[in-house]
Each structure stands twice: as structure tokens, then as C-alpha cells.
Amino acid sequence: MAQAKGYAAQSTTSPLAPFNFERRELRADDVAIDIDYCGVCHSDIHTAENDWGGSVYPVVPGHEIVGHVTAVGDKVTRFKVGDIVGVGCLVDSCKDCQACNAGLEQYCLNGFVGTYNGKDKIDGTITFGGYSDKIVVNERFVLSVPKALDPAAAAPILCAGITTYSPLKHFGVKAGHKVGVLGMGGLGHMGVKFAKAMGAEVTIFTRSESKVAEAHKQGADHVVISTDPAQMAAAAGQFDFLLDTIPVQHDLNPYLACLKYDGVHILVGLIEPMEPPVHAANLVLKRRIIAGSLIGGLPETQEVLDFCAEHGISCDVEMLDIQNINQAYERMKKGDVKYRFVIDMASLKKGA
Predict the structure, then answer these.
(1) Among 34, 53, 102, 284, which residue's CB has the most CB atoms within a 10 Å radius?
(2) pTM for the complete prediction?
(3) Domains in the chain, please, with CATH?
(4) Half-sphere exposure of 166 (CA within 13 A, CB side)
């Protein structure tokens, strides 16, 4: 066992605090990684505070991990000591079902193992995530970080990036398409960058006039203020796709009206019931689709890292010392970050 240091939540109400624990011994197909950077995702807060139920304490969050390889198991072939690598939302799956064989481990028919708060398929222990100084991960679930990417800014690509890239790729966004992005946070601003790189005409939907200039700065061609009835009416029937990154309940009906016939409304941020109800006429009369998408499999996650390197795409980040993680959580709840916090894990050495 290797001694590890990190930050953990001990209950639904306790702040994250220093936590010492053990990482497993290296298995033959494992990669040992010293963590350099870890992005902070809203899912980290939901799990730490048990918003979705099922959290097993202590919780060490963090699934946007970039670090360097320190050791490899005897059967590892893809990585060597010193490589800069990433670990995203998954650290294992059954590896042998139809979904896994298709490189869609996020839809594993037997259940994937999350980077944190998952259950290890071999020893049954609960997984601890990237708010720590080191991690041990099965080779299949380790990604190569291209040299062209800044390692700190690359970390959020492993969740915020793949979450928005995967559905745009799956549904075939390309030049000539009109894509609307709902919300402009950690997910939304990446969605804009990807859709633009794919050749689409991109519009940001936001409730706030104050975000218009920022939306254009991020690369949006147009901005629609969703609280303005005249602007929403003008947008009716205009879009091939809507990428919906809004993480709380909201009325889908006005947005559905903005889709063309055969248009697709893709949910990536909402993981709770849709309220108010969707009026079926908004779907039936125009053959519109409401779809959902969850992160991406390992091949596609490697693909998005390479895509970002090729197109010069990175996440806009604010660097953070681990000692300030609780303040960062409070700021995230208020939407006060542009657009992703990334923890410099060297700050762990500063102590509590």
C-alpha cells in the first residue's frame, strides 16, 4: 500500500478537510500517477453533499485529473514512467459487455466504476478521487495528454470537455449546422468552442444581458436573451441542435420551439425530473427529439484531448490551492467562476 494525502468530506455537512489514506498496491495492469492538477466539477459538490443520494463517506472528490506516471505494472504497454497522463470520470468497467466492447464504457451494461465513490470490482473498496497527491488506475482508463496542451487547463477536458464534445460528435454536428448552447458555465463555454471548431454557427442562450460580451469573447456568433420574448420568438424554428448544459430544472418548451423540424435538444447538465412537463406537441408536430448524453468512453475521451490539441482548445480556468476548496465550492454554487476551478496539487505540501 502507498500512503496518500488528500481532502475529503466526512459527512453531508462537514467541510472538506485533510485526509490520509492508502492507495492500493500496483496490479499488473495498473498505472501509478502523481497528481499535478485536478479540476473541480459541480458533481464533486453533489457527491460531497450527497445531493443525489448514495454517497459513501469519507468522499475524496475529483475526476478531472492530470499528472505524471511514477510506476507501471508488469503488463502495462501504453505508458512509461514520466508520461503526462489524465484520468477522467471512470476508473473501471466490466470491460466485456456490448457497450464496453464498443468503447462506450460510460454505458457499461454491468455498471462502470466512478473515479470516486465507486466500488472497486476486485477488492470491493470505495474509490477515492483526484483531490489527492497520487492515484492508481487500470491502464485502460488512463489517457495520454498531448504535449501541445497546458496540463492545468487540460484537466477539465476530462469531464466538462468530453461531456460537451461527445454529443456534438455523436449527432454529427458539422459546417452549416446551427447550434444553440444553453448556459455558459464550465460545460457551456466548452460547447461553444467545440461547435465552432466543428464548423457550426453557434448561438448562446443566456438569461443575463451582462453575459453578451463574454459570450462573443468565447466565440459565439450570436446571443439570445432567453428572458426576452421578442428574441425567443425571433429564434423560433432556427436551430438544428440545442446543447443544454443547464444543471437545474428549467422549462424546455420555449427552447424546443427554437428547433427546426428534426431538431435535437440534448441534455447534458440535468440529472433530475424535467419540470414543468414537456408539451408533446413541441415534439410531435416537428418530429423533434429530446436526447441525453453522459460523458464519453475512453476512445472518445482520448479523441477529444487530441482534438483540443489540434484546434488549440482549452478550458478557461482559475487556479486554486487545495486549502481554499470550501470557499471555491461556495463560489461555484453562486456561479462565481470563469469557468472551471483547477487545483494545483502542489499546494497539498503546504499543509492544512
Answers:
(1) 34
(2) 0.95
(3) 2-159+315-350 (3.90.180.10), 161-292 (3.40.50.720)
(4) 27
